[in-house]
Amino acid sequence: MMLLQWLIVGLTQFGVKRSGGAPRMERIVYWLIPVITVVLYLTTIQANLGTAVDIRRVAMLLVAGIFILMGNYLPTVPGNSYHWGIKKSKGRPELNASSVVN
């Protein structure tokens, strides 16, 4: 998990230097893996201690929380930020993550 965190932080820093930053979105990305790690660690400990843990509910809450956080902070990202998957083109429309959702 630490390698994944370092990879995400490195890619985010590289993208921010290249195309400008969105501080709120960067904080969300930086805290995403540590929070998931702690929740999964605690869930694993509870399951091994014999407590009935509903893994589907934990997974659903994690994914829902990620979507809520990203959905709340994605509008604060500048429109010209290529790093976050948002690119406004003047010519023909491009297919990216933001155009698939619309």
Would you give an account of this structure?
The chain is mainly alpha-helical. The protein has 4 helices and no strands. The chain has helices at 2-19, 23-48, 55-73, 97-101. α1 (2-19) packs antiparallel against α2 and α2 packs antiparallel against α3.
Please give the structural blueprint.
Blueprint: H1 2-19, H2 23-48, H3 55-73, H4 97-101
Helix pairs in contact: 1-2, 2-3
Please give the largest β-sheet.
none
End-to-end CA span = 33 Å
Taking Cα atoms only, what radius of gyration do you get, to the nearest Å? 17 Å
Number of strands: 0
| Binned strand content | under 5%
Helices and strands, in N-to-C order? Answer: HHHH
Shape: elongated
Work out the helix count. Answer: 4
Quaternary structure type: single chain
Could you name the ranges where pLDDT drops below 50 across 5 or more consecutive residues? none
In short:
This protein has 102 residues and is an all-alpha fold. It is built from four helices and no strands.
